[in-house]
Design a protein that fits this description.
Helix content: 25-40%
Number of helices: 10
Largest sheet: 7 strands, mixed
Number of strands: 14
Strand content: 15-25%
Shape: rod-shaped
Distance between the termini: 133 Å
């Protein structure tokens, strides 16, 4: 047996005499080196010459079989062709030589970095969509609420279905005996109209009584707040249509307050001379609009209808049924 020290890892190697003068591979580090000749085979720990030393930069390729050993032996043909290559010593040593090569070729494959779990896209998208729809619904709700409030605040008042474009209105109600059957529903229709004014508009209601005029508010126009409207209703609760009533006196008092509109309701066929003179003077004021309502059998033509057209107002005929419907 031949013993030698590995030139690389300094471990002691022992092999068959058949390797004398040949080459061997260190079983520990894989370094290929020469085996001392027969003259030195009994020298324990004899020096060996390294033919191949594995480095970290070189790929770990190990020649296998007799062709590999011959290539590594180079010009030492006599050593390789010596006795013992096919013997048992070579077979066992071949296993020892190939084992380190197999171990060197076994490399641990680097593991791919663990993939971090991604964010749950679908649930997030659903949450975002729900929040967007909720915001949209809330926006539409508040927009519709504000829009509705604006419409109520800017809605124009009406009387028996006729729109009155004015910020202050004075109602002149004919309380003569010709309106006996129509006066009560006329008061209710007037109450309904007052409720459409809103608290930002002013109002006053007068009758056509020259001797004892009924008016509320008595002094001047007031804002159409619910308490004021309720007081007017109680003031006129006992008013009835009786005797002769004339337009001239109440018309002049109404115009003195500079209202935007006059609502005149009457069932008279004709007006007397004073009424016509007062009406003609009032129709010459472009700042006042006349809204005239002919009650019952009042004629379609007449001075009041002409005054309504001349002032940019409107004339409408109201039967008892129309008044009842307006009073509902």
């Amino acid at each position: 047996m031949i013993s030698l020290i590995c030139t690389n890892c300094q471990n002691e190697l022992t092999m068959d005499d058949a390797f004398a003068g040949g080459v061997c591979r260190c079983q520990h580090c894989g370094t290929i080196q020469t085996v001392p000749s027969n003259s030195a085979k009994n020298s324990r720990g004899a020096a060996a010459k390294a033919l191949y030393q594995k480095t970290s930069a070189e790929p770990q390729e190990t020649p296998s079989g007799l062709a590999g050993l011959a290539a590594l032996g180079g010009g030492s043909g006599s050593g390789l062709s010596g006795s013992g290559l096919g013997g048992s010593g070579l077979s066992s040593q071949r296993v020892a030589l190939q084992a380190p090569a197999a171990a060197a070729q076994t490399q641990v494959q680097p593991q791919a970095p663990a993939r971090k779990p991604g964010l749950p896209i679908l649930p997030i998208a659903i949450v975002v969509a729900v929040l967007a729809l909720s915001g949209l619904a809330a926006g539409l709700f508040f927009w519709a609420r504000g829009h509705a409030t604006t419409e109520v605040a800017t809605a124009l008042p009406t009387f028996a279905g006729v729109t009155i474009n004015a910020s202050s209105v004075i109602y002149l109600l004919d309380n003569s005996h010709s309106n006996d059957a129509l006066f009560d529903p006329l008061k209710v229709a007037c109450f309904r109209s007052l409720a459409t004014l809103g608290p930002d508009r002013k109002f006053q209601v007068m009758t056509w009584d020259n001797d004892k005029p009924a008016a509320y508010p008595a002094d001047q126009m007031h804002n159409a707040t619910p308490p004021e409207i309720d007081l007017w209703k109680r003031t006129f609760a006992d008013s009835v249509a009786a005797g002769n009533a004339h337009l001239a006196g109440p018309l002049k008092r109404a115009l003195a307050q500079k209202p935007d509109a006059l609502v005149i309701a009457t069932g008279k066929w004709e007006l007397d001379r004073d009424d016509l003179a007062a009406l003609a003077a009032a129709a010459g004021d472009p700042s006042v609009h006349f809204y005239v309502f002919g009650l019952g059998s009042a004629p379609e033509q007449g001075a009041l209808k002409l005054a309504a057209g001349a002032t940019g107002g409107q004339y409408k005929r109201l039967s008892l049924g129309d008044l009842n419907r307006a009073a509902e």
